[in-house]
């Protein structure tokens, strides 16, 4: 995901690129499929919405404890930035990868990124 054209940052402490990776390694033995990424501010909201709406495996919404894969967008308000000032400008996306086949999920996310342009 870090190699995708419009991805400014991937937010997950298990990644070596995360500023909190050393803390993660110290305190955890594994991770989960909940993470975020920031899309370039050069994209339009319309393009992001269309790409997300066309996903076949990821549904739009927050997790309620189910097994389905989900994607949603958050707005980076000034108040949120006060807690995480190192986030780049852009559109914050949240993904929960569910129990569907991993290769199918990756292919569906690639369709999302391809639809961004």
Short description:
The protein is an alpha+beta fold and 117 residues long. The protein contains four helices and five strands. Strands 1-2-5-4-3 form a five-stranded mixed beta sheet, covered by helices on one side.
Question: Can you offer a commentary on this structure?
Answer:
The chain is an alpha+beta fold and 117 residues long. The protein has one domain: Aspartate Aminotransferase, domain 1. Helices cover 31% and strands 21% of the residues. The protein is built from four helices and five strands, in the order βαβαββαβα. The chain has a five-stranded mixed sheet, covered by helices on one side. Helix 2 packs antiparallel against helix 4. The mean pLDDT is 92.
